[in-house]
């Protein structure tokens, strides 16, 4: 069933560390060898052994319209024909910036970069420059890309590294990073008091998505916003994943909390490499060349990614509504199946993303997510054999798209019911 994938993996491990270009793809947390992909088709992924799966990975979030949607393919082809990069401004960057702002009015200015990692790293630099302070508070189990300062504790990817600095990251690079538990406003209050006058920003995923989907407990985000105001600290929402997934306006619209800075990526590139950071005009005006905070990029704002992003955001509301509907139906179906089978699960769903935790209790923190992760590999493989491709890690969210229709939802729920009975 996976012969060709196994052969290709045997080849790739000789030249690529772990055989992959990003760690989670290697199937380390579920065992076995990764599927090599032949192509994507709407909600389906087809591997090199011609197995066909309903895809809930969707490249870890960007593909809100599924694989290779006609409008995106056409936009990318048209852009490619007239040049893939110029190192000079194009009109489309302004168009994409305006489209982002329509959905997220807290972004008064935007800088485009090439990945979420780059955007988070740059937002931290900007926050430090703006406040003249160095400390950054982040939440346990949240992922803000792999820049040194934010790798102190970084969710899914480096779960096993615990609270130690990652190898290759000097202790000096994370000395100013303070890690607190998510969904614990008291912990933030304590950290702000302990480091009074030293904290530049709190950066967080407003709905955690890199320890599975863990929504904020009621009142948490408004309280964090109040605390940051009281202590005169910037609030940075990392909406690389939640931006245009939990609602058409991101988590900031859903919870009505306005951050000072927002980091974006994934969906805004329509499946091509992109990242962005933006927010209050007085802060963003510090970015070079308008201000003194240096940050640059050869391929930043390139016409391929920007064109794909424009097409994606032009139909965002429609795409989001369909994708969120699919996620809701899958979540309800799994809950009902688990009830019938008396299997304790917690299905968390936020718009077009969801997670299944094998826990009898609600999961609100990274420790709780970790505690129930052991049951995941078995269900992952049981579903894969039934044509359902979930992320190969219990700490990655599941994603739906606008082309995950009734048929895919029904087949997924049926497969879950069978897999839960195994
Ligand atoms: C994916 C992700 C990132 C990193 O984005 P890349 O484009 O993979 O560098 C940062 N923050 C969050 C919340 C993410 O989900």
Overview of this protein structure:
This protein is of the alpha/beta class. The chain contains 14 helices and 14 strands. The strands form three sheets. Strands 4-10-9-8-7-5-6 form a seven-stranded mixed β-sheet, sandwiched between helices. A four-stranded mixed β-sheet has the order 1-2-3-13. Strands 11-12-14 form a three-stranded antiparallel β-sheet, with helices on one face. The longest helix is centred in the C-terminal third of the chain and has 26 residues, at 316-341. The structure holds pyridoxal-5'-phosphate. Pyridoxal-5'-phosphate binds at residues 115-117, 120, 143-145, 205, 209-210, 238, 240-241, 265, 275.
Distance between the termini: 20 Å
Mean pLDDT: 95
The low-confidence parts are 159-163
Biggest β-sheet strands, sense, barrel: 7 strands, mixed
**SSE sequence, one letter per element:** HEEEHHEHEHEHEHEHEEHHHEEHHEEH
User: Gyration radius, to the nearest Å?
Assistant: 21 Å
- The number of distinct β-strands equals 14
For the biggest β-sheet, the strand order reads 4-10-9-8-7-5-6
**DSSP helical segment count:** 14
Give the ligands present: pyridoxal-5'-phosphate
Structural class: alpha/beta
The proportion of residues forming helix, as a percent range, comes to 25-40%
As a percent range, the share of strand residues is 5-15%
Sum this structure up briefly.
α5 links the parallel β5 and β6 (about 175-180).
Layout of helices and strands:
Elements lengths: L2 H13 L21 E5 L2 E4 L4 E4 L14 H12 L9 H13 L5 E5 L2 H16 L3 E5 L31 H4 L2 E4 L4 H10 L4 E6 L15 H11 L3 E5 L11 H5 L6 E5 L9 E5 L1 H4 L18 H12 L1 H26 L4 E5 L2 E5 L8 H6 L4 H9 L3 E2 L8 E2 L6 H16 L1
Parallel strand pairs: 3-13, 5-6, 5-7, 7-8, 8-9
Antiparallel strand pairs: 1-2, 2-3, 4-10, 9-10, 11-12, 12-14
The site of pyridoxal-5'-phosphate has 15 residues, from α4.
């Amino acid at each position: 069933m996976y012969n060709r994938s196994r052969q290709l993996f045997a080849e790739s491990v000789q030249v690529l560390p772990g055989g992959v270009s990003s760690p989670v793809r290697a199937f380390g947390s579920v065992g076995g060898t990764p599927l090599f992909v032949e192509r994507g088709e709407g909600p389906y992924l087809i591997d090199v052994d011609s197995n066909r799966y309903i895809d809930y990975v969707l490249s870890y979030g960007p593909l809100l319209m599924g694989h290779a949607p006609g409008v995106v393919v056409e936009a990318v082809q048209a852009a490619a024909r007239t040049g893939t990069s110029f190192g000079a401004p194009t009109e489309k960057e302004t168009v994409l910036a305006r489209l982002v702002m329509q959905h997220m009015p807290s972004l008064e200015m935007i800088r485009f970069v090439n990945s979420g990692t780059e955007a988070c790293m740059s937002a931290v630099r900007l926050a430090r420059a703006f406040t003249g302070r160095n400390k950054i508070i982040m939440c346990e189990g949240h992922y803000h890309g792999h820049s040194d300062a934010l790798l102190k504790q970084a969710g899914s990817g480096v779960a096993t590294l615990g609270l130690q600095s990652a190898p290759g990251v000097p202790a000096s690079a994370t000395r100013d990073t303070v890690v607190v538990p998510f969904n614990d406003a008291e912990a933030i209050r304590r950290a702000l008091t302990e480091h009074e006058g030293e904290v530049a920003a709190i950066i967080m995923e407003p709905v955690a998505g890199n320890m599975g989907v863990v929504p904020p407990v009621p009142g948490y985000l408004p309280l964090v916003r109040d605390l940051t105001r009281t202590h005169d600290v910037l609030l940075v929402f990392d909406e690389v994943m939640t931006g245009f997934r939990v609602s058409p306006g991101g988590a900031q619209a859903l919870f009505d909390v306005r951050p000072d800075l927002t980091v974006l990526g994934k969906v805004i590139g329509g499946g091509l490499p992109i990242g962005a950071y933006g927010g209050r005009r007085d802060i963003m005006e510090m970015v070079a060349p308008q201000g003194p905070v240096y940050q640059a990029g050869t391929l930043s704002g390139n016409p391929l990614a920007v064109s794909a992003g424009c097409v994606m955001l032009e139909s965002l509301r429609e795409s989001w509504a369909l994708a969120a509907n699919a996620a809701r139906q899958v979540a309800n179906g799994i809950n009902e199946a688990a009830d019938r089978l008396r299997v304790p699960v917690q299905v968390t769903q936020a718009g077009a993303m969801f997670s299944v935790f094998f826990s009898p209790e609600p999961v609100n923190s990274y420790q709780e997510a970790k505690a129930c992760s052991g049951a995941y590999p078995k269900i992952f493989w049981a579903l894969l054999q039934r044509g359902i491709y979930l992320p190969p890690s219990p700490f990655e969210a599941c994603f739906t798209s606008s082309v995950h229709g009734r048929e895919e939802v029904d087949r997924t729920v049926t497969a879950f019911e069978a897999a839960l009975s195994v």
